[in-house]
Amino acid sequence: MEYYFKIIIRPFEVSGHLPNLILLVPRILTGYSLSFIYAPNKFGTPWTPDSMDLSWFEVSKEFVNHIAYQGYPFDVMPNLFAWSIGFMEAVGGLLLILGLNTRVTSFFVFLTMAMGIFVRKWDGSWDILPVFIFFCVSFFYMGFGAGKFSLDYYIAKRYVN
Known about the structure:
Layout: H1 2-9, H2 17-38, H3 61-69, H4 78-98, H5 102-118, H6 128-144, H7 151-159
Helix pairs in contact: 2-4, 3-4, 4-5, 5-6
């Protein structure tokens, strides 16, 4: 079990500051976009606008209805799916910004975005483009981890030999 923990937490070793900076920028932008641009419109966070009238960890009714509109399996438990998507975007984005538990967080972002790409009803718009970008970025970080400028790297160097 400890072996698998080490594999999951230890980022891919990249030497030099420029390559690690290149690993940092997309992770920060993705985490910021998920937490501060997309999540506040559907999920209650401290930074959700007051006009949304959402308490902490509450999902907007419009988003629940949008999830239920997608059909099976989402219409069976739309509240659960909407809450898990909102939570993943808000908290997962923060974890990506910090570089904490990056591989596991990226896995959940990847799954959520895969559902958004392959299961949702196509409306002919380009709204799917950010979903596809998050899908690709999370797939990358599942494999490579967060890099040297992350809490994962600090934890792995300090506590995992």
